[in-house]
Amino acid sequence: MARTKEFDPDAALQSALELFWRRGYEATSMADLVAHLGIGKASLYATFGSKHELYLRALERYEQSGLAPIVHELSRPGPALPAVRALVRRYAREAADERLRLQGCMVTNTAAELAPHDPAAARRVERNWDQLETLLHSALVRARGQGELPADRDPLAVARTLLVLMQGLRVVGKASADPARVRDAAEQALTLLD
């Protein structure tokens, strides 16, 4: 007869996500995970595989929870540019927020820490950025079609610019205690939409 799990894998994954997000991949050991999750090492390996597999699953959960509200915001009917502006400003606000900025974005953190030497992590980061770029591009195509975005603006180029800016806001916000730096950059980038 198979033993039932003595812990909730979903809750454990969420807890692992929070630890990885706060500390990063390299700074989080298996011993840290065992202590933080309150799960035996053997159970952790049996359920999630290696530390790397657990990290990738945690990153995937982070991506899904982060993209869902963006899909909702950018795909609502009606004018599209207010939603795009609000999204960029939200990234700037979060990057400048004293409580949030030091933790940063798990995708951006992964891009800086793992993507240069970890192909699986790099694929996850690229997939996330592709999805965000596609959402922005679709909203900007709609905005141009509705006459909100000037006809001479390339929706794909603007979407890519905003994507790079938004990721940069996360990095600069994490490293800089000057909130004006990220707010000013965001506002300047939004002039592309005028």
From TrEMBL:
Coiled coil: none annotated. It comes from the Bacteria. Gene3D superfamilies: Homeodomain-like (1.10.10.60), Tetracycline Repressor, domain 2 (1.10.357.10). It holds the Pfam family TetR_C_13. Residues 29-48 bind DNA. Residues 6-66 form the HTH tetR-type domain. Transmembrane segments: none annotated. Keywords: DNA-binding, Transcription, Transcription regulation. This is TetR/AcrR family transcriptional regulator. The lineage of its organism: Bacteria, Bacillati, Actinomycetota, Actinomycetes, Kitasatosporales.
